[in-house]
Amino acid sequence: MDRPADVIDFTPDPTLYPFESRWFTSSVGSVHYIDEGDGRPLLFLHGNPDWSFLYRMIVRALRDEFRCVAPDYPGFGLSVHPDGYGYTPAEHATVIAELVNHLDLTDMVVMGQDWGGPIGMDIASRQPERVHGLVMANTWFWPGDDRVTKMFSRAMGSPPLQWLIRNRNFFVSPLMRRSLQTKLTDKEFAHYTDVVPTPASREGIAVFPKEILGSHPWLGELEARVPKLADKKVALIFGRKDPALARDETIARWRRQFPDASLLELPEAGHYVQEDAPAEIVRVIRETYSG
After folding, report:
1. pLDDT at 291
2. Which of 16, 89, 94, 236 has the most CB atoms within 10 Å of its CB?
3. How far apart are the C-alpha atoms of 252 and 274, rounded to whole Å?
4. Residue 4 has pLDDT above 80, yes or no
């Protein structure tokens, strides 16, 4: 599909990202996604500061068995950077729900990591009849009410760090680079840096950490709806070298909500489990949702 006029001029390396790029005309502009394979749909939702490239190895491994759909939120990856858009998780969830409805995804498994967790849980809890199961990795679905979370959000939302995020791409390099337990090649990591080449293109990346606190009401409403998913099959995956979202209390909170969920703890993986442990994620998805 030809690249729309309202998205950035970036072409992924086809040896790393061997997928057909597609665009959906959402209510805010062109939303990029990939749609590979047939079978039960897997909806892969990314976090910050990444995009569908994060799921490339998982999609390559599973597209012969599942229909793998991985979108980029507005302001991320190859999607539009809309004027007048707030880049809040609530807005992202609304746009991706439009895509889900457009593709008429049913019997789907929703995987979310980082902000992809709350966004995916929002979509799933509003349309539970479309959902077969969940795969949640290094993420949450409730208001950030603990000291560590509040400190991170306030620090990243402070004027000096907001300036660094926008003007020095600080959230991607060094923050994301240092969080990875797997060393990426320069060509691989360039897919995270070069897709946001200007301060204006990093607006979405800058907004997300502020929204940990800013979206407190939205997260509270989400937490209240999550019991609608109590009957769904759930797989939890946590890279334990993530000091923010793989703490014991985070995992315990998930398990209280979903006591029958399977749990895979990865002692050598960090926050970006899709880069650090793709084979383990593929195995869990196959074992839980094949057939």
Report:
1. 72
2. 89
3. 22
4. yes
Helix 159-168 × helix 147-156 angle, to 10°:
60
- Does residue 6 carry a pLDDT above 90? no
Give 61's pLDDT tier (boundaries 50, 70, 90). very high
pLDDT per position as a tens digit, 175-189: 999 999 999 999 999
CB-based burial label for 279 (10 Å; 0-12, 13-18, 19+):
exposed
Residues designated catalytic: 114, 242, 271
What are the structural domains, with CATH classification, of the chain? 22-289 (3.40.50.1820)
Residues 68-105 have pLDDT tens digits of 999 999 999 999 999 999 999 999 999 999 999 999 99
Spatial distance between the Cα atoms of 50 and 52, rounded to a whole number of angstroms: 7
Strand ordering across the sheet containing 22-26: 22-26, 29-36, 67-71, 41-45, 108-113, 131-137, 233-239, 262-266
Q: What percent of the chain has pLDDT over 70?
A: 100
For 193-220, the pLDDT digits (tens) are: 999 999 999 999 999 999 999 999 999 9
